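Figure 6 in text form: structure in, sequence out.
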């Protein structure tokens, strides 16, 4: 078996993951359809969970179909970022479990900050800046880009909630 082929065990695990994601999407989609309609809001309380369930179902189905067709899942033959080569020694695609733990902890801290009444804008900016910095391995040349992206992301998220979804944020 060449390095570009998945093992049967990997394919089986991918198929199981795709089927599980699809099943979870169906369960939550059905549950969201059972939410009572809101008398004051045309979208209702089940709209967002239904949209997330549909997106999750699409991704689960794609994973399952790609696996059943024998196509690779989770590995790219080339970098999506223009100018980066997988053969470049400076490009590092190693797994970073510490980043996953940090992101989980940052998410918990973000939820806690919101619960403590810290304003949404500042909590969101701090979360995006810290997680973005961790993803960039806290490299100083990227900090201005990360802070700018965090500020832009916070602004867009705030506008989405306040102006489009009409949610009163803390």
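Output sequence:
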């Amino acid at each position: 078996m060449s390095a570009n082929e998945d093992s049967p065990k990997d394919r089986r695990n991918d198929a199981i993951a795709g089927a599980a994601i699809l099943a979870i999407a169906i369960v939550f989609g059905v549950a969201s359809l059972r939410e009572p309609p809101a008398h004051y809001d045309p979208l209702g309380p089940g709209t967002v969970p239904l949209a997330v369930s549909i997106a999750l179902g699409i991704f689960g189905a794609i994973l399952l179909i790609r696996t059943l067709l024998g196509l690779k899942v989770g590995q790219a033959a080339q970098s999506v970022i223009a100018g980066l080569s997988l053969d470049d020694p400076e490009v590092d695609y190693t797994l970073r479990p510490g980043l996953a733990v940090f992101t989980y902890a940052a998410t918990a801290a973000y939820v806690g900050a919101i619960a403590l009444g810290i304003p949404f804008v500042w909590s969101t900016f701090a979360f995006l800046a810290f997680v973005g910095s961790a993803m960039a391995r806290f490299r100083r040349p990227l900090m201005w880009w990360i802070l700018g992206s965090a500020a832009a992301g916070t602004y867009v998220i705030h506008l989405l909630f306040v102006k489009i979804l009409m949610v009163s944020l803390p």
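Caption detail: The two ends are 55 Å apart (CA to CA).
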